[in-house]
């Protein structure tokens, strides 16, 4: 229905693969040709609105899962300023970083359990292995899509060659 929505076998395949790998992600394909900035701006605004709603729901779910309130999380972060530092990265548990922070604060409220879980994750490397496997799958799909696009482009640019004419033999008249 939208003129700015790209659709090809490659983009549709990549989109379905990424949304299968990361169901909480919001995939936003944007075509950079065509009507231009107005359509792009409109699509981005729609998806940002959707992302804000999804993030708010994830934070509410994280608060309910951990039995905390947003005021309690803010108070804890205020007492531990390194959690609000720009380079702090909470362990990934949800689709948005705010929900990750809620889970991180809940874990840090019990320091013994927090450090045991952190040590176990470092020793077992679960998160790193899962991230690496997902990254490798995504790279494989990207490589396959790129190879298909290259071969399709090559097939388009190659001109079919006409078969060489066969010499015709004319009958010789005998006298």
Secondary-structure map with pairings?
Elements: H1 9-21, H2 37-66, H3 70-79, H4 97-108, H5 111-124, H6 126-157
Helix pairs in contact: 1-6, 2-4
Feature tags:
6 helices; single chain
Task: Give a written overview of the molecule.
The chain has 175 residues and is mainly alpha-helical. It has helices at 9-21, 37-66, 70-79, 97-108, 111-124, 126-157. The N and C termini lie far apart (78 Å).
Short précis:
The chain is built from six helices and no strands. It has helices at residues 9-21, 37-66, 70-79, 97-108, 111-124, 126-157.
Rounded average pLDDT? 80
Tell the overall outline: elongated
Low-confidence stretches: 1-5
Share in helix: 55-70%
Q: Total helix count? A: 6
Secondary structure: number of strands = 0
Share of residues in strands: under 5%
Structural class: mainly alpha
Radius of gyration: 28 Å
Q: What is the straight-line distance between the termini?
A: 78 Å
Biggest sheet, in brief? none
């Amino acid at each position: 229905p939208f003129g700015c929505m790209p659709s090809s076998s490659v983009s549709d395949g990549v989109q379905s693969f990424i949304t299968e790998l990361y169901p909480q992600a919001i995939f936003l394909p944007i075509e950079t040709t065509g009507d231009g900035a107005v359509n792009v701006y409109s699509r981005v605004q729609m998806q940002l609105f959707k992302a804000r709603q999804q993030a708010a729901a994830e934070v509410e779910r994280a608060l309910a899962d951990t039995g905390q309130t947003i005021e309690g999380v803010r108070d804890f972060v205020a007492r531990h300023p390194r959690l609000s530092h720009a380079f702090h990265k909470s362990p990934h548990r949800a689709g948005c970083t705010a929900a990750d922070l809620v889970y991180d604060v809940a874990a840090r409220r019990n320091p013994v359990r927090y450090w045991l879980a952190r040590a176990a994750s470092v020793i077992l490397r679960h998160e790193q292995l899962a991230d690496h496997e997902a990254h490798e799958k995504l790279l494989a799909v990207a490589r396959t899509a790129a190879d298909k696009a290259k071969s399709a482009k090559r097939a388009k640019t190659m001109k079919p060659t006409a078969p060489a004419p066969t010499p015709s033999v004319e009958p010789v008249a005998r006298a």
